[in-house]
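Re: the 256-residue chain
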Amino acid sequence: MDSSCSVSAGIVTYNSCDKIGDAVLSVTKHTENCTLYISDNGSTDNTLGIVKEYAPDAVILENKENLGFGAAHNKVIPLLNSRYHAVINPDIIFDYDVIGEICEYLDSHPEAVMATPKILNPDGTEQCLPKRMPTLKYLFARRLHLSQKIADEYTRANENLSEPTVIDFCTGCFFVIRTEVFKKLGGFDDRFFMYFEDTDLTQRAKEYGSVIFLPGSHVTHLWEKSSAKSLKYFMIHLKSTFRFFWKYRKKRGTNK
C-alpha cells in the first residue's frame, strides 16, 4: 500500500484483558501508518492497562458504560481522517500486514467500498461465516442445525470462492471500509446493541459500492460464540434479530 495512504483501526473492548494484548500487537507490529483507536465500554479489569503497555500510542476513548458494539465503534468517527478504516474484534489476530493488503485491493478496485478476508480458527481451518443476506430460513437452519445444506448455502461453504467475490454479509469481527463511506453512513446503527449491526452496515454500504470477500487474505478469530453459551447474550441476539428483520421487512421477499 502507498505509504501516503493513511489507515485507522478501531477495537471495542469490554473486559478483554485475556485477549486484547495479541490484538493490539497485531495492529502495531504489522500495519504501517495506522492510527489505532480503542473504544472501551467501561472495563473493570486490566484491559486498558494492557493496551497502554502494548500499544502506548493508541488513542483510548473511555466510555462510562457499556454502549454496545456499534455505538462504541461510532465514537471514533469524529476523530477519523484516514482513507481506510479497519474494524477489529479484540479476539482477532493476524501475522502479516493484512490491513495493508486489503487496502491495496481497495486502491485498485474503486467500485469496492468494504472488504473482509478469510476468517480462520486457531487451528487454521476456515470459519464458515455468513455471506448472504440473512433470512429466517438461513438463521433457523444454522442455529438449530436443521439442515447443513441450507446452512452451507447461507455461508456459501460449498462454493469455490478462490477469487475476490461480491457478498451480501460482511462479518463485523474484521473488515476494512473506506472511511469516507463509513462517515457517510454514520457508522453502525447503534440501535443494534450487539449482533446484526454488521449485517445492517453491509446492506447500507452496498448503496455506495460492492462489498468483497477476499479469500487470498486471512486473519485468525478466537470466536467465543457468546450467544450460544449465555442466556443474556442469546436474548440480546434474539432482540437484534427481530430488529433487523423489522428494518428490512420489505426486502425479505427477494431474499428467500
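The CA atoms of residues 28 and 103 lie 16 Å apart.
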